[in-house]
Amino acid sequence: VYPSDLKLIDEDLFTCLWRPAVSSALLLLEEAQDPQSAQQALEGFLSVSRSAVAFRMNEPTDVCIAALSAATTLRHGALSDAIIRFGGSIKAQMAAVTLFGVARECGDWIRKDGWRAIVSCILRLHILCLLPEDFERMIGGLGGDFTHPNGVQLPPTSTIPRWWPSVAASVTESRTEDATTVDQGAASLFSFLTFGVEDDRTKAVDERDVIPSYLRFDDVEEFSPGAASLSRKCIVDCRVDEVLVNDSRFLSHDAFACLLQALHSAVMQVSEYTIPSPSDKTNFGFDSSSIQPGIRGSFSHDDAMSFGYNPVGLSEADDLKARQSVSSFCIDILCELTIRNRDRLTLVWPATHDLIIKTLAPATQPSPVLERAIIGLLRIAMRFIHRDEIRGDLLRTLSLLVKLPLSVTASLGTPLASCIYHIAKTNTQNICTTSGWHTLMSILESCARFPEPAPTIGFAALQFLITQDQSVPVLNPETFAVFLDALYLYASTVLPCSKSACDLLYSLTGRVPSMCSAEKSDTQDDSSRKEWLEYWSPILLAFSQLCRDERGDVRNHAFGLMESVVRSGGPAENLTIFEKQMVLNTVLLPLARDIFDPDGVLASRSSLRRRLKSEGDSDHSPEDGTRLMAMSIVSRFFLQNQKLFVKHLSIEDTQELW
Q1: DSSP 588
Q2: pTM reported for the whole predicted model
């Protein structure tokens, strides 16, 4: 026998023996009465897995992982006693450590069934709040990506329930500053989840913040703090974060694709938003068109339990909370995998994008799942909108946010504004389409309607885009209208930045002549009419509307700026006779009529002021100052252009204008 033949003989022997070996190890583990016997059985699983890797075989590794996941008791069984069952069994804990050890060591040779088993165990640990706190905060938080323009990190949003591990870990962080052992930290967090916050027991609690029954131990005799502590200590030793996130960058293409498919399938079968279909297929085995959005998931108990979630015995409210927790966690994991695998975006992005679309499309009310999907989308957009392969998908998906009702995205206004501000500062040169700028400006407009600090951050992004010199100018004839609409909204909405928005509107008029010169038509008349319709008319009408604003300071400020625009030497000095005639006929004279009309925009304010004025007060009022400015701007514009009107207009037109 030649040495080269020995390996073939070994492989044939292993092919014949691995199934009996796994069966024997599983039987020995089931019958083990002490840790030593259990350790011998677990070493058998390790030997089979390592040999399978040596012979480049997938099936033995998947079978070993499936057997170990069953031995942990995490994958199946009711949620109500899962912590006690796992924490009270040394065999289950040893099997869990072995399971994740095999996953770290043999990850490249794990395929569909193996990753399905691993994901199901991790999801069960997440539902039971047994994953490490740092890992939960990293996956379920804002990731440190969202900051105010002054550099301060934004606080978490308010939609996520307080009992979720990522939020509960943050709540208990201040309580465990002095806790130096795992036992103390675990006990503190688990106490929060099972018994709630002592100071808030008598206060009204939002339904979403009510801890689900499978995390509460109302029967004190049944509750075992030691089991919870041992469970958490064991999971820390398993290093789940390395298996699921950190080591994903080094997984082979096929193994990584199977991990993505397992996470996607978990959401499809557990989520309340979609119906799983056996014919789902894409690059990862699923197809968006085959899933019906907007319908609560109708799945079998076997499908649910295969991902560590058992709906049996849960109330409708607890069932929904468990589904939302699992779906959000899977979306968070997929977004984190997308960010960490930037060299394999074409592999990971379709799965992540598919889930985000399915979450956004049917949304009609706020939910934790929707919030986590939007946060993940924004994090990916901030990092990868410069990548050609996914930029189009990102912009189209961001455009869906504009179509959502404001009540749905109200709690996410600040992260939305922060994302657009980040893109404005770092990636403006990569937004090359008009539709892309329409999407970003529409999001900035929606930010003006949200509570602070979203409008402040949104206006900072708008100000940067207009005032900063860009290598590729973002303000051009194709984007002028969307920038003008956004500026007008910030100026006309009751915001601290309204007057600053008026100033930006004035700076916009200085850009008009250069854009007009770049678009000269063949004939002067056509060019003049186009300039008026596309540039001067919209911007002057925006100023005229601000001159009608109910806020006196904004109204008078807008009057002063508009007078600077149309006066001699201003940006509009070189308007043609047609354009100047239109300024008077369509902007200034209608504005003056409204200001002086007894039933016009100032009527109610003047009447109220007269009723409240005491006998000793002066007759002068802010409304009088507004009327004076209106009369002044009309008179000055007419007088400074009188000779031009007489020269180019007929006597009848001049008299009519007068």
Answers
A1: I
A2: 0.85
What gap in Å lies between CA 634 and CA 591, rounded to an integer?
9
Q: Is residue 487 left, alpha or beta, with left meaning phi > 0 and alpha meaning psi from -120 to 50?
A: alpha
pLDDT score at 228: 86
Whether residue 108 has pLDDT greater than 80:
yes
pLDDT in tens, 74-105: 888 888 888 888 998 999 999 999 999 999 99
Structure tokens at 71: 């031995």
* Mean pLDDT calculated for residue range 113-131: 94
> Which pLDDT belongs to residue 29?
94
The confidence score (pLDDT) of residue 602 equals 64
CB neighbourhood size of 393 (10 A): 17
Element (DSSP H or E) covering residue 270? helix 253-270
- 395-417, pLDDT tens digit by residue? 999 999 999 988 888 889 999 99
Rounded mean pLDDT of 215-240? 77
Confirm if 122 and 262 have CB atoms less than 8 A apart: no
Q: What's the distance, Cα to Cα, between the start and end of the chain in Å?
A: 114
Cα angle value 638/640/641 (rounded, 5°): 65
Q: Where are the alpha helices (DSSP H) in 341-387?
A: 345-360, 368-384
Token duo for residue 307? 């991902």
Kindly compute the dihedral angle of the four CA atoms of residues 102, 105, 106, 111, in this order, to the nearest 10 degrees.
70
Q: How far apart are CA 176 and CA 552, in angstroms?
A: 53
Backbone angles phi, psi at 153, to 5 degrees: -70, 145
At 224, the pLDDT band (50, 70, 90 cuts) reads: low
The residue among 274, 303, 307 whose CA lies nearest residue 289 is: 274
pLDDT-derived band at 340, boundaries 50, 70, 90: very high
The rounded Cα 36 to chain-centroid distance in angstroms is 49
What tokens were used for 497? Answer: 């930045």
Phi/psi for 398 (5° steps) reads: -60, -35
Place of tokens 């059985």: 41
Cα dihedral sign for 231, 232, 238, 240?
A: positive
Across 290-316, average pLDDT: 48
Q: Which residues contact 209 (CB under 8 A, 6 or more apart)?
A: 161, 162, 163
3-state secondary structure of 153: strand
CB 184 within 8 A of CB 233: no
CA dihedral 583, 585, 588, 591 (to 10 degrees): -140
Give the tens place of pLDDT for each residue, 376-387: 999 999 999 999
* pLDDT at residue 618 in the model: 46
Rounded Cα distance, 500 and 202, in Å: 46
Q: Report how far residue 173's alpha carbon sits from residue 187's, in angstroms, rounded to the nearest whole number.
A: 12
